[in-house]
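Render this sequence as a predicted structure.
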Amino acid sequence: MLWPKAVQERVKTGNDRELVHSYPYRSACPSTVWTELIESASEELFFAGFTNYFFWSQVPHFADTIRRKAQRGCRVRFLLGDPNGEVTRQREEIEDVALSVSTRIRITLEHLERLGPLENVETRFSAPLDAVNHVSLSVFRFDSEALVTPHLARLVGHDSPLLHLRFRSAGGMFDRFAEHSEELWSRARVPEEPDH
Protein backbone atom coordinates (compact mmCIF):
# COMPACT_ATOMS: atom_id res chain seq x y z
CA MET A 1 0.00 0.00 0.00
CA LEU A 2 1.36 3.37 -0.96
CA TRP A 3 0.71 6.05 1.63
CA PRO A 4 0.00 9.58 0.55
CA LYS A 5 3.07 11.80 0.76
CA ALA A 6 1.57 13.87 3.60
CA VAL A 7 1.16 10.74 5.76
CA GLN A 8 4.66 9.47 4.93
CA GLU A 9 6.18 12.77 6.05
CA ARG A 10 4.45 12.51 9.43
CA VAL A 11 5.25 8.87 10.19
CA LYS A 12 8.67 8.20 11.68
CA THR A 13 10.64 5.40 10.08
CA GLY A 14 14.05 3.85 10.72
CA ASN A 15 16.29 5.72 13.13
CA ASP A 16 13.84 8.63 13.22
CA ARG A 17 11.66 6.51 15.50
CA GLU A 18 14.25 7.01 18.28
CA LEU A 19 13.54 10.73 18.46
CA VAL A 20 10.73 11.09 20.99
CA HIS A 21 10.78 14.87 21.13
CA SER A 22 13.04 17.84 20.52
CA TYR A 23 13.17 21.14 22.38
CA PRO A 24 14.81 24.35 21.14
CA TYR A 25 16.02 24.95 24.73
CA ARG A 26 16.84 22.47 27.50
CA SER A 27 14.82 24.70 29.82
CA ALA A 28 11.75 24.11 27.59
CA CYS A 29 11.73 20.42 28.50
CA PRO A 30 9.16 20.05 31.31
CA SER A 31 10.61 19.09 34.69
CA THR A 32 8.08 16.24 34.74
CA VAL A 33 9.95 14.61 31.83
CA TRP A 34 13.20 14.58 33.82
CA THR A 35 11.44 13.33 36.94
CA GLU A 36 9.56 10.55 35.12
CA LEU A 37 12.69 9.33 33.32
CA ILE A 38 14.68 9.23 36.56
CA GLU A 39 11.86 7.48 38.42
CA SER A 40 11.28 4.91 35.69
CA ALA A 41 14.95 3.86 35.40
CA SER A 42 15.80 0.68 37.30
CA GLU A 43 19.17 -0.40 35.89
CA GLU A 44 21.12 2.65 34.71
CA LEU A 45 21.25 6.36 35.48
CA PHE A 46 24.17 8.12 33.80
CA PHE A 47 24.47 11.88 34.28
CA ALA A 48 27.17 12.91 31.82
CA GLY A 49 26.71 16.65 31.86
CA PHE A 50 29.77 18.79 32.55
CA THR A 51 28.31 20.19 35.80
CA ASN A 52 25.02 18.30 36.44
CA TYR A 53 24.20 20.97 39.01
CA PHE A 54 20.63 21.71 37.92
CA PHE A 55 19.34 18.30 39.01
CA TRP A 56 19.73 19.18 42.68
CA SER A 57 17.45 22.22 42.43
CA GLN A 58 15.09 21.32 39.59
CA VAL A 59 14.22 17.66 40.19
CA PRO A 60 12.12 17.19 43.33
CA HIS A 61 13.77 14.97 45.97
CA PHE A 62 16.68 14.24 43.62
CA ALA A 63 19.12 13.20 46.36
CA ASP A 64 16.57 10.89 48.00
CA THR A 65 15.72 9.38 44.62
CA ILE A 66 19.39 8.72 43.81
CA ARG A 67 19.88 7.09 47.20
CA ARG A 68 16.78 4.90 46.79
CA LYS A 69 17.69 3.88 43.23
CA ALA A 70 21.24 2.95 44.25
CA GLN A 71 20.02 0.91 47.21
CA ARG A 72 17.73 -1.02 44.86
CA GLY A 73 20.65 -1.95 42.61
CA CYS A 74 20.45 0.77 39.95
CA ARG A 75 23.90 1.83 38.71
CA VAL A 76 24.23 5.61 39.09
CA ARG A 77 27.11 7.48 37.45
CA PHE A 78 28.09 11.14 37.44
CA LEU A 79 30.64 12.24 34.85
CA LEU A 80 31.76 15.77 35.64
CA GLY A 81 34.26 18.23 34.32
CA ASP A 82 37.30 18.86 36.50
CA PRO A 83 36.55 22.08 38.44
CA ASN A 84 40.27 22.94 38.28
CA GLY A 85 40.73 21.98 34.63
CA GLU A 86 41.86 24.24 31.81
CA VAL A 87 38.69 23.61 29.74
CA THR A 88 36.59 24.59 32.77
CA ARG A 89 38.53 27.85 33.08
CA GLN A 90 38.15 28.55 29.36
CA ARG A 91 34.44 27.82 29.48
CA GLU A 92 34.02 30.24 32.38
CA GLU A 93 35.56 32.98 30.25
CA ILE A 94 33.27 32.13 27.35
CA GLU A 95 30.05 32.00 29.41
CA ASP A 96 30.97 34.98 31.62
CA VAL A 97 28.16 34.36 34.12
CA ALA A 98 28.10 34.82 37.90
CA LEU A 99 27.40 31.14 38.64
CA SER A 100 30.65 29.87 37.15
CA VAL A 101 31.23 26.42 35.68
CA SER A 102 33.59 25.41 38.50
CA THR A 103 31.06 26.57 41.09
CA ARG A 104 28.33 24.52 39.44
CA ILE A 105 30.58 21.43 39.44
CA ARG A 106 31.40 22.00 43.12
CA ILE A 107 27.68 22.24 43.92
CA THR A 108 27.25 18.75 42.46
CA LEU A 109 30.29 17.44 44.34
CA GLU A 110 28.94 18.87 47.58
CA HIS A 111 25.57 17.19 47.08
CA LEU A 112 27.24 13.90 46.19
CA GLU A 113 29.36 14.11 49.33
CA ARG A 114 26.20 14.64 51.41
CA LEU A 115 24.80 11.41 50.00
CA GLY A 116 27.63 9.61 51.74
CA PRO A 117 29.30 6.48 50.41
CA LEU A 118 26.75 4.49 48.45
CA GLU A 119 27.26 1.25 46.61
CA ASN A 120 26.32 1.67 42.94
CA VAL A 121 27.05 5.45 42.87
CA GLU A 122 30.20 6.45 41.01
CA THR A 123 31.71 9.85 40.22
CA ARG A 124 34.51 10.66 37.77
CA PHE A 125 36.09 13.72 36.15
CA SER A 126 36.51 13.59 32.39
CA ALA A 127 40.11 13.26 31.23
CA PRO A 128 41.85 16.55 30.29
CA LEU A 129 42.03 15.57 26.60
CA ASP A 130 38.31 14.67 26.59
CA ALA A 131 37.10 17.75 28.46
CA VAL A 132 36.49 19.81 25.32
CA ASN A 133 34.26 17.04 23.94
CA HIS A 134 32.49 16.65 27.27
CA VAL A 135 31.75 20.35 27.79
CA SER A 136 30.19 20.60 24.32
CA LEU A 137 27.75 17.69 24.66
CA SER A 138 25.73 16.53 27.66
CA VAL A 139 24.24 13.03 27.61
CA PHE A 140 21.83 11.95 30.35
CA ARG A 141 20.79 8.28 30.22
CA PHE A 142 17.86 6.58 31.92
CA ASP A 143 17.92 2.88 31.00
CA SER A 144 16.85 2.88 27.34
CA GLU A 145 16.06 6.60 27.08
CA ALA A 146 18.32 9.63 26.95
CA LEU A 147 18.17 13.40 27.00
CA VAL A 148 20.98 14.94 24.95
CA THR A 149 22.10 18.57 24.88
CA PRO A 150 24.57 19.76 22.24
CA HIS A 151 25.90 23.04 23.67
CA LEU A 152 25.88 26.00 21.34
CA ALA A 153 28.78 28.47 21.25
CA ARG A 154 28.59 30.80 24.26
CA LEU A 155 25.28 29.52 25.60
CA VAL A 156 24.89 27.84 28.98
CA GLY A 157 23.21 24.44 29.07
CA HIS A 158 19.65 25.58 29.71
CA ASP A 159 19.77 27.79 26.59
CA SER A 160 20.98 24.98 24.30
CA PRO A 161 18.68 22.53 22.45
CA LEU A 162 17.68 19.15 23.83
CA LEU A 163 16.76 15.84 22.18
CA HIS A 164 14.74 13.13 23.90
CA LEU A 165 15.76 9.73 22.51
CA ARG A 166 14.45 6.20 23.09
CA PHE A 167 16.43 3.12 22.04
CA ARG A 168 14.81 1.18 19.16
CA SER A 169 17.64 -0.67 17.41
CA ALA A 170 21.40 -1.11 17.58
CA GLY A 171 23.47 1.55 15.91
CA GLY A 172 20.80 4.24 16.09
CA MET A 173 20.91 7.73 17.60
CA PHE A 174 20.58 6.44 21.16
CA ASP A 175 23.56 4.11 20.74
CA ARG A 176 25.69 6.81 19.12
CA PHE A 177 25.32 9.13 22.11
CA ALA A 178 25.56 6.29 24.63
CA GLU A 179 28.85 5.19 23.06
CA HIS A 180 30.16 8.77 23.24
CA SER A 181 29.49 9.01 26.97
CA GLU A 182 30.88 5.52 27.62
CA GLU A 183 34.09 6.44 25.81
CA LEU A 184 34.49 9.54 27.98
CA TRP A 185 33.77 7.45 31.09
CA SER A 186 36.37 4.85 30.14
CA ARG A 187 39.16 7.44 30.30
CA ALA A 188 37.79 9.51 33.18
CA ARG A 189 39.43 9.59 36.61
CA VAL A 190 37.99 9.22 40.08
CA PRO A 191 38.30 12.46 42.09
CA GLU A 192 41.02 12.06 44.68
CA GLU A 193 39.12 13.89 47.39
CA PRO A 194 36.12 16.22 47.74
CA ASP A 195 36.92 19.52 46.02
CA HIS A 196 35.23 22.55 47.56
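Summary. The two ends are 63 Å apart (CA to CA). Strands lie at 19-23, 44-48, 75-80, 121-125, 137-142, 145-150, 162-166.
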